[in-house]
Amino acid sequence: MALADRTTVRPPAAGPPPTGRRGPRLRRALAPYALISPTVLLLAVFLVVPVGSVVHYALQHHVVNEPYDDAFVGLGNFRAMLGDQRFWDSLAFSAKWVVAEVLLQLLLGLALALIVNETFVGRAMARALVFSPWAVSGVLTTSIWMLLYNPATGVFHYLSEIGVGNAGTSVLGNPDTVFGAAVVAELWRGVPFFAILILADLQSVPKELYEAASIDGAGRVRSFLHVTLPHLRDAIVLATLLRSVWEFNNVDLLYTLTNGGPAGATTSLPLYVAQLARKSYDFGYGSALTTAAFVILLFCSVLYLRLSKFGRQR
Amino acid sequence: MTGLQHAPLDRTAPVESPAVTTATAVLPPAAVRRGERGSRFLRLFLPLGLYLVFTVVPFYWMLLFALRPAGSTSLLPWPLTLEHFGTVWNDMGFRVYFQNSVWIALLTLLFVTFFALMGGYALARFEFRGRRLFMLALLCTQFVPGAMMLIPLFNIFQTLDLINSRWSLIIAESTFQLPLAMILMSGFVRNVPVELEESAMVDGCGRIRAFLAVVLPLLRPGIVAVGSFAFIGSWNNFLFALMFLNDPELQTVPVGLQTTIGENTVDFGALAAGGVVAAVPVVLVFAVVQKYLVQGMSAGAVKG
After folding, report:
1. Among the entry's GO cellular component annotations, what is one (chain B) (predicted)?
2. Residues B55 and B91 in one domain
């Protein structure tokens, strides 16, 4: 945090006249703590306590509407988890979902950022349009794509009328097509995130580097590979990491678009937990799943940062 | 943590220039060569056009169904009708949902912006014990799955007797949005030259007056960006509302939207009109914030 040293306000040399009550030095020392205290309080009560209580409940048998059955079960919930096929299925789905989403969002977002970073007439408008799905919620995405995917009202209906494909069944009702359909809907609103982040970083590439590369005879492709990509590396690592966590935890879209179906084909791990919480009120087992997910997520994140040598190159 | 600051932050740049997003396109000099027009089309306009179709058609589809009469198969919303809006607004309760969502989102915006300003200022301007730990904690919160906090948060709100109260949503949303908002805001504060504040303090202003008179006006882009993020995030939240509110009179737009999806009434007009109602505030906020978006991201998120 070397940055902070240089931006810290130095009190004026003379200093304000010392007040009678408290010395200015003490006030200055306490000020930052006072400023962050509301946030610390909020985070402690509504984030740290819940995390702690998840760990606590993970070791209990606790079904909300059967309070007479509450008991300490140790690792019993985790043992049950290992034998729960739905846990393994949902975990596998989550992995597949995160990899597909993040990879495609990154590739499309990178391409899009490069395109709208060029100069052309109507660029501001193009950017606004291309970025706009970023602000759309998961539930609204579902509404929109329901209209598009519905066999009676959707685009496939119109496409099949002009002879492209056939619109017999709903893509959301078919276990073979539902994954692709959900991935495309989520891509629609997910790509702008990468495009925005990468565009922000693209604008900090020093122009001189491109000039130097061009003098050295590098074409467009080579200057992209040797100038742009290395510059973007840390931003890409950070964006993919944040997005992976976010996509892993994201429930809204799948909950409303497919509700995990058909036949559990699109049940992600968080969705499974949310269903447990809402339907069976089995908070003990749900907490064990949450703890497991948290550990898996943390492990993968650390591994990813290690493997990508984040922040080490320059 | 230090790894995040891989690129030198340009602190000499004036803060009030969201123009960087549009003015300085990095252009390889080779691009303006003659005879590249054809390749420019293939490289630029064709993919952009295709992507625009992918982006815009879904929006258009929603508008189409919201505006044309039930049963019509026309690809243009003509003749125009507002009957579907009447249905969702009056009969399906969207008027109440809309009001609830507006209040919840505005209060979240207020809390998040205010606390983010306080904390962001502290992070940017003070060197204090525990600062790095606090920054690390803020980043770590990004790994906590909001959806998976449903169960314990439900218990806490039950203890506080806040289930079925809008405050549960406002508090939960603020908590989950504050960390990133604060990191973003500290980036914006850091971009305000510290000398301005020092000279105001030399002139006899206290720190608070120096902040209000000098720093705050220059922070307007940051406040707009952070506030808009908070508004959009809160407006879009679905699971917290679903979990913490039971009374339909208290429900929010996303939950209302889900009921239009869930009911097998196959009223696609209502489904689309509800979507438009949900989209309008967000689109308006997005229009305001979009020019700060790229700048905000580069100021705060990436270079923490």
Report:
1. plasma membrane
2. no
What mean pLDDT is predicted for residues B169-174? Answer: 94
User: Is B93 a domain residue?
Assistant: yes
CATH no. for residue B218?
1.10.3720.10
Walk me through the domains of chain A, giving residue ranges and CATH numbers.
84-281 (1.10.3720.10)
> Nearest CA of chain B to the CA of A79: how many Å?
20
Q: Which of B155, B27, B174 is nearest to B113 (CA)?
A: B174
Q: Look over chain B and give the mean of its residue pLDDT values, rounded to a whole number.
A: 81
Do B182 and B52 fall within a single domain? no
- Inter-chain residue contact B61 with A147, CB threshold 8 Å: yes
Q: Average of pLDDT values for B100-111?
A: 95
Question: Same domain for B247 and B165?
Answer: yes
Taking the Cβ of residue B239 and every Cβ of chain A, the question of whether any pair is shorter than 8 Å is answered with: yes
Q: Work out the pLDDT band at B69, boundaries 50, 70, 90.
A: confident
**Residues B58, B124: one domain?**
no
Q: What is the pLDDT of residues A74-129, one digit of tens each?
A: 788 898 889 889 999 999 999 999 999 999 999 999 999 999 988 888 888 888 89
Residues on chain B touching A143 (C-beta within 8 angstroms): 62, 257, 260-261, 271-272, 274-275, 278
Do B285 and B266 share a domain, yes or no? Answer: yes
Dump pLDDT digits (tens) for A29-61.
888 899 999 999 999 999 899 988 888 888 888
Angle at A236 between CA A230 and CA A237, to 5 degrees: 100
Backbone angles phi, psi at A282, to 5 degrees: -85, 85
Q: Give domain status of residue B42, yes or no.
A: yes
List all residues of chain B from 157 to 216 with a beta carbon under 8 Å from chain A. 171-172, 174-176, 178-179, 182, 190, 194, 197-198, 201-202, 206-207
How would residue B194 be classed by pLDDT, with cut points 50, 70 and 90? confident
Q: Is A121 on the interface with B (CB under 8 A)?
A: no
One-letter amino acid of A226: H
- Chain B residues 118-137 with a CB less than 8 Å from chain A: 118-119, 121-128, 131-132, 134-135, 137
Supply φ then ψ for residue A60, to 5 degrees. Answer: -115, 155
Task: Please indicate, yes or no, if residue B4 is contained in any of the structural domains.
Answer: no
Angle at B181 between CA B179 and CA B184, to 5 degrees: 110
CA A198/CA B41 separation, integer angstroms: 22
The domain total for chain B is 2
Among A residues 217-256, those touching chain B with beta carbons less than 8 Å apart: 219-220, 223, 234-235, 238-239, 242, 245, 248-252, 255-256
Are the Cβ atoms of A38 and B115 closer than 8 angstroms?
yes
Confidence of residue B236 (pLDDT cuts 50, 70, 90): very high
Residue B266 lies in a domain: yes
A308 and B CB contact within 8 Å: no
Q: Structural domain of residue B60, as residue ranges? A: 34-81
At residue A71, φ and ψ (nearest 5 deg) are: -160, 155
Residue B6 above 50 pLDDT?
A: no
Asked if B117 and B38 sit in the same domain, the reply is: no
